[in-house]
Amino acid sequence: LTMADIPADDPATYAMIQHADTVGVFQIESRAQMAMLPRLRPRNYYDLVIEVAIIRPGPIQGEMVHPYLRRRNGEEPIEYPSQEVESVLSRTLGVPLFQEQVIKIAMVAAGFTGGEADQLRRSMATWKRNGGLEKFRDKLINGMRERGYEGEFAERIFNQIQGFGEYGFPESHAASFALLAYVSAWMKCHHSAAFTAALLNSQPMGFYAPAQLVQDLRRHGVEVLPVDVRHSEWECTLEKSGTDRHKPAMRLGFRLVKGFKEQSSTRLCAARTAQAFADTNEMAHRAQLDRRDMNALSKAGALRSLAGNRHQANWASLGVEEPTPIFGPAIPNEATPMLRPPTDGEDVVADYASLGLTLGSHPLALLRERFSAKRYVTADEIALITAGSTIKTAGLVVTRQRPGTATGVVFVTLEDETGSINLVVWSSLVESQRRELLGAKLMGVIGEIQRDGEVIHVIAKRLFDYTDMLGRLSIDSRDFH
Fold first, then answer.
1. What is the pTM for the complete model shown?
2. What is the Cα 436 distance to its own chain's centre?
3. pLDDT digit string, tens, across residues 314-331
4. What is the mean pLDDT of residues 436-440?
5. How far is the C-alpha of 95 from the C-alpha of 432, rounded, in Å?
6. Residue 219 pLDDT > 80, yes or no?
7. What DSSP letter does each residue of 28-71 carry, written as one string?
8. If you count Cβ atoms within 10 Å of the first and of the last residue's Cβ in the chain, which end, N or C, has fewer?
């Protein structure tokens, strides 16, 4: 496929976007974008152009977001102070969202010449550094008033120009980004395994770590296969699925294994292509893997198909002798003992330590009995609880975002075994619970549910750091609130 091959206006893709099912999608995967998508509900390409442009400091600080949404939803009349302004703003319902619109308004409503408008454009980008916008203020406002525009409208336009100086998009820029966002969304919608494999092979990038990308893929019904010395390549790849003949499975690659080098992966794959491996010793010799390589593979669970469970694989890797050109591969003198398999909790801890993700039970699923005993609810349950209710919930911390336009507010995304939980942490709580907010990998929260259509937030009232529970998944945990 090329970008030109992607069909335009695909209904399934836009349905996915409208429900903010956009983890991993270029430009529309942030918390702010995900909160806006169910409100704006993009139905076509130009809607996406607006979506990309509207979640920017310029439109937000210029107070353009809510007027646009109200007008789009028929909650506020669309009015224009003149036909000249209507010709500039009709595509965006009377709200200036793009730099070009602001420049054109200066020309048609305030009498700026083309040269003066270009000077204004240049000053917008540097006004905070050079203080260059103030010299245009009087000319802009007086020019509008002389042409019959109300002073309030003129002041609002100037404030919006200042907002665009913070970071407003040219329409052409937003259009280019929107095309990439649509193509990314179409790939996620129709080829989700290939899309996620490509994201994993391009890490680090985006808002989400491999663990969240893999969890999201599995929630979409795609089989994800573990790292395995008999099947994996360096990159994540696609295979025939054993559970769904209509969708390929995604195989995790060696690139995710901490401490395992790409050169070692290349030798391993070449040796495997020549002849299947009989056991770990033979594999180590033929692929010229040292004990560090073998230790990395055993910790990742990648030797399971040759050596059994993680404990047995670790034992086998310890017995690997360094090959010598004289004697060839070492022959182990001892039989591998029948070591007990790890518990689910031990496997999960080892997976995260070695791969940064797990295909086993979600950590919150293993801890659910303890959390439920204290009436902590899941992400799925939050969706059914009435707005205004106070709840307790917990999850792995996925992202923390503190936009410059949010006046100290921090947005936190948690993940449990059922989905995502979106927290809003007001600045007062940010200051009083900074340690829990910034330090927790597993966070608990007491908060109030807030709804706006499909968008659900939990307004945090108190935070708890339960990170120590992740290292003790197989041990009873106490210390609950």
1. 0.87
2. 22
3. 777 776 655 544 444 444
4. 95
5. 38
6. yes
7. S-SHHHHHHHHHH---SHHHHHHHHHHSSHHHHHTT-HHHHHHH
8. C
